[in-house]
Amino acid sequence: MTYQEIYTKLEKSPSWQHSYREIMLLGKQLPALPEPLKTEQARVKGCESTVWLHIDLDEQQQHLLLVGDSDTRIVKGLLSIVLALYNGKTPMQALEINAYKEFEKLGLIKHLSPSRGNGIKAIVDTIQQQVSQWA
Amino acid sequence: MSDITQLRKDFPTLKQTIEGHPLVYLDSGATSQKPQAVIDAVNLFYTKNNANVHRGLHTLSEVATTQYEKVREKLARFLDVNAMECVWTSGATHSINLVAAGLTSQLSTGDVILITALEHHANIVPWQQLAARTGAKLEIISVDEHGVINSDLALAEIQKSKPKVFACSHASNTLGNIQDVQAFVAKAKELGAITLVDGAQAFLHLRPNLRQLDCDFYVLSAHKALGPTGLGVLYGKYELLNALPVYQTGGEMIDTVSFTKTTFRQAPAKFEPGTPNISAVLGFGAALDYLNAINFDALHQYEQGLYQYLIQRLQSIDGIKVYGDLKNNIGTASFTYKNEHHYDLAMLLNSYGVAVRSGHHCTQPLMQTLNLNGTIRVSLAFYNNRCDVDAFISALTNSIELIEG
């Protein structure tokens, strides 16, 4: 699912229960990471739940390739939104993304603020840090 | 207990909404809420009586010192021990570290430090470090598949290992189990052990009589018993306590100082360097007054009744598994739902205004024993009522529906 499709879905969510349901559905649709890729090195530090993230650059196309997984439904759903935001972007484009603002527009910040330890901030920071080396 | 409705009104934090729902506070194991009297006592100190203690001849300092020392006496009466046996610390963790550091010279290679498998990290790591410093062995009394210590097996384990140090929680922070500490302490002392009981969780719910319990050391945190944060207690039998070397040094705890030699005061002063947490001590004094004014037996009965109601309602949900000793319990329920991650359920519960704790609860070894990555923990206090339990159960079933829908 593209970020635009996700945006359209969540934008008109009538209640937080509905948002959560959509987020968990997004998580379900995100393919599970193969076990050998769930390495210690791929773990994002600073998340209460376990999150694995791989970031790569298609050097020919200059496109970002991100895959990830989490052991919780909600974080996996949120992760899939983050992946949709960044996948296929060039490093320069990626640096301009303000993920926090996007989450705010989706109405998720109120329920899913980074201070609750859902680790979205840690995930986004990890991506930005990696991408800045390519930009 | 009909007075509960009245008592509940004393807790201003409970009168708020979270995410549009009335707050259902079920995380008293992490910290208890504070009655208005405690807040007022802290407030009064800073608005009227603020002065340092044990210094200065001026009126405010005298008043502060008198009030501060009165709370130590009040606490001593509450615990049925002597005031000079009670040291103010920053919390139960500090208290355990003080004892563990102080016992360094008393242990040597091959000595046994015995603890249990359900201890909080704060009652594991200081002993592990003590073992590493001295060459002593850290041995563990195991729990069964529910997380319960079998008392007979524990006594046999104490007999077998002949520990030099025995440390055990009065009640488990993760599961709420009440340990048979009286029997364990008696057995360990009979074999010559120094004994420490971690009362961080139990103190509020059980109001232990330490003269009867007869342990050498008992530790607690004020904030888990209606008091302010940043204050703890180390009780120690005077000779053993005073025999411990100083832990931190500085002002207040000295007798004489020159550049070549310093002599220290006797316990408890020798363990209280620097300016103490005066406002927290005064707040804790108000907490003790508050507790003293409520009939303990009636309160205990009420708490136990509410806990049984909680367990019964939890167990009526298909797929819920509750861990721990459901008979001897301070009112804490730790549970899982099928293979669902505790994180998802706790997040959803919060959206219904329900505050619970989720995770390993600072007991990773216990979680490993139970083969879990975490649980959801509901911890009750006397200011909770059946409405709280009902609201929690309804939020839980809605959350489960949302997850499985």
From TrEMBL, chain A:
It holds the Pfam family SufE. Coiled coil: none annotated. Signal peptide: none annotated. Residues 9-130 form the Fe-S metabolism associated domain. It comes from the Bacteria. Gene3D superfamilies: 3.90.1010.10. InterPro entries: Fe-S_metab-assoc_dom. Belongs to the SufE family. PANTHER family: SUFE-LIKE PROTEIN 2, CHLOROPLASTIC, SULFUR ACCEPTOR PROTEIN CSDE. This is SufE protein. It comes from Pseudoalteromonas byunsanensis.
From TrEMBL, chain B:
It is an enzyme of class 2 (transferase). Its cofactor is pyridoxal 5'-phosphate. One of its GO terms (molecular function) is cysteine desulfurase activity. NCBIfam families: sufS. This is Cysteine desulfurase. Keywords: Pyridoxal phosphate, Transferase. Its EC number is 2.8.1.7. Residues 24-392 form the Aminotransferase class V domain. Catalyzes the removal of elemental sulfur and selenium atoms from L-cysteine, L-cystine, L-selenocysteine, and L-selenocystine to produce L-alanine. PROSITE patterns: AA_TRANSFER_CLASS_5. The keyword Iron does not apply. It catalyses: (sulfur carrier)-H + L-cysteine = (sulfur carrier)-SH + L-alanine. InterPro entries: Aminotrans_V_dom, Aminotrans_V_PyrdxlP_BS, Cys_dSase_SufS, PyrdxlP-dep_Trfase, PyrdxlP-dep_Trfase_major, PyrdxlP-dep_Trfase_small. CDD domains: SufS_like. GO terms for biological process: cysteine metabolic process. Gene3D superfamilies: Aspartate Aminotransferase, domain 1 (3.90.1150.10), Type I PLP-dependent aspartate aminotransferase-like (Major domain) (3.40.640.10). It comes from Pseudoalteromonas byunsanensis. Transmembrane segments: none annotated.
